[in-house]
Design a protein that fits this description.
The protein has helices at residues 3-7, 61-69, 91-95, 116-125, 152-171, 197-200, 227-234, and strands at 52-58, 74-82, 102-109, 134-135, 138-139, 145-149, 180-183, 188-189. By secondary structure, it is an alpha+beta fold. It has a single domain (40-233), classed as 2-Layer Sandwich (Peptide Methionine Sulfoxide Reductase, Chain A), CATH 3.30.1060.10.
């Protein structure tokens, strides 16, 4: 299957490519990590002793990153690509669906100042984890919901939080959670212009919404369904947004 086959395949049925079918990528990183434009910290460390990391996929990474950098206790954030096979992919390559990667935000945080549960709550409530290979208008495997954890200390609470939120979603009439929860593999930085995009472009909009809230498109440049088509599918979905908190 060629690039065009992936790019123009039926967006209602996106599939992850096998490692053999994935694009080859490149050995060199596509950008040199610098400093966070809001927090002033390095986006790739070194960070203070005790800093932990977790990586979240929740649709377009522009708005998702802004949500996390605003949480007190977060040391730094960076957007990139993870969960796939292609090393050091470009944004355009990820958009073809042939890398297997999701758009993600890597969050470095100080557990003495912010709990992992606080980050999980922000994750669950800022997107709809029941939509499979899409998030609102954004269609494709790169927009899937995912939590890539650093170790077992993060894995158990991440899975427990999924089970807790699944009960609330089911009670509110939503479908099954499709979020992937797995140990973190390689994280590949997205291009510099994507890093802290909403700080560099303050007039841009990239809203992120939880279940049942109006769905609006955030990122530009990747294939997606029309607004009307998504609106038709969203008609009849529950309009009550469940809270993760009890």
């Amino acid at each position: 299957m060629g690039i065009l086959d992936f790019q123009f395949a039926d967006p209602a049925k996106p599939q992850l490519p096998s490692p053999a079918d994935a694009l080859p990528g490149r050995p060199e990183p596509i950008m040199a990590p610098g400093r966070h434009t809001v927090l002033g910290t390095p986006i790739d460390g070194p960070w203070p002793a005790g800093t932990r990391t977790v990586t979240f996929g929740m649709g377009c990474f522009w708005g998702a990153e802004k949500g996390f950098w605003a949480i007190p206790g977060v040391v730094s954030t960076a957007v990139g690509y993870a969960g796939g096979s292609t090393p050091n992919p470009t944004y355009q390559e990820v958009c073809t669906g042939r890398t297997g990667h999701a758009e993600v935000v890597r969050v470095a945080y100080d557990p003495a100042r912010v709990s992992f549960q606080t980050l999980l709550r922000a994750f669950w409530e800022a997107h709809d984890p029941t939509q499979g290979m899409r998030q609102g208008n954004d269609m494709g495997t790169q927009y899937r919901s995912a939590i890539y954890v650093a170790d077992a200390d993060e894995l158990a609470p991440a899975e427990a939080s999924r089970d807790t939120y699944r009960e609330r979603l089911t009670a509110a009439g939503f479908g099954q959670i499709t979020t992937e929860i797995a140990p973190a593999g390689p994280f590949f930085f997205a291009e510099d212009y994507h890093q802290q995009y909403l700080d560099k472009n303050p007039t841009a909009t990239a809203p992120i919404t939880g279940p049942g809230w109006p769905v609006r498109s955030g990122c530009a440049g990747c294939p997606r369904n029309s607004r009307a088509a998504v609106g038709r599918r969203e008609a009849g979905r529950p309009r009550v947004r469940p809270s993760y908190a009890s």
